[in-house]
Design a protein that fits this description.
This protein has 292 residues and is of the alpha/beta class. 42% of the residues lie in helices and 18% in strands.
Length: 292
């Protein structure tokens, strides 16, 4: 396909199937066949997709993934300013959502280049719909940090988030992540683990975080999306000593000094610092002496 030199092109973000190729939006095939440039997260997966759709790309195909995103963006912007229609696709779902795309969109908008989209499947929205948790308000947190301390710190930041939360996670880290969520959010907080969405072995496991963590400890495979219920509306919270101690320990494990952790927990609970301090000291003494 040729484009007219001297006119600005268009950047098209296209959603691709997250599992079942039959979910491909009808416009996707037409855009793949007619785009001047197709930027794909994985050119091999793009080839498999076009074969499954029974089509051929006519434009130039280039790779666009996390490792070359910064370097390739100027090249694609140059093509756009020259009038090209550039189609961006990722391995699955919508570009920019925990996938390459944000840098290119920002660069195109900065140059007053038109950006449009071919809406398509989304693991975030699919998992939300299947979770049986409230979906009137939600937030997307993407992947949590890999290191345990950083992961606890991030979870602690959203511990009081009232909206339903959506996370992505790798299968080999799922058990650790669910255990950390149970520790920070509470073992009784409701959640859903959505595995292999729209694929042959699709599974949605719903239940309290504590139960889900125990289930995941046996090993889980596939693409994972985790949906977690938001924190309950809270008036002045009545917390027992054990819960106060647990919250202090969560903060300490995330890197806070005990003094700061006690002060923060006391502030969150609307309690005097002394009350939290006394609970921590009593727990320490109980651990030293053991059961009576």
């Amino acid at each position: 396909m040729t484009h007219v030199t001297g006119t600005t092109g268009t950047l098209v973000l296209a959603g691709t199937p997250i599992g079942d190729v039959a979910d491909a939006p009808p416009r996707l095939a037409a855009e793949l066949e007619t785009a001047d440039v197709v930027a794909a997260e994985d050119t091999r997966r793009l080839r498999r997709l076009t074969q499954a759709l029974g089509i051929h790309t006519t434009g130039r195909v280039v790779s666009y993934f996390e490792g070359n995103e910064s370097a390739r963006t100027p090249e694609l912007v140059e093509a756009l300013t020259g009038g090209a229609r550039v189609l961006l696709v990722t391995d699955a779902g919508m570009p920019s959502v925990s996938d390459p795309g944000y840098r290119l969109v920002a660069a195109a908008v900065e140059k007053d280049i038109k950006v449009t989209a071919v809406p398509g499947p989304s693991a975030v929205l699919t998992a939300l719909a299947l979770s049986a948790l409230p979906v009137d308000r939600f937030c997307f947190e993407g992947f949590l940090p890999r290191k345990a301390g950083e992961r606890l710190g991030r979870l602690r930041e959203v511990a009081d988030e009232r909206r339903t939360m959506v996370f992505f996670e790798a299968p080999h880290r799922l058990d650790d992540t669910l255990a950390a969520m149970a520790e920070v959010f509470g073992a009784d907080r409701r959640a859903a683990v959505c595995r292999e969405l729209t694929k042959t072995y699709e599974e949605v496991k719903r239940g309290p975080l504590g139960e889900l963590a125990a289930w995941a400890a046996e090993g889980v495979r596939g693409e994972i999306t985790v949906v977690v219920e938001g924190a309950a509306e809270s008036g002045p919270e009545e917390l027992d000593a054990a819960e106060l101690v647990r919250r202090v320990r969560v903060r300490e494990e995330a890197g806070e000094r005990r003094k700061e952790a006690i002060a923060a927990v006391a502030a969150d609970a609307g309690l005097p610092k002394r009350e939290v301090f006394d609970a921590v000291v009593a727990a320490k003494n109980a651990e030293r002496t053991g059961p009576a």
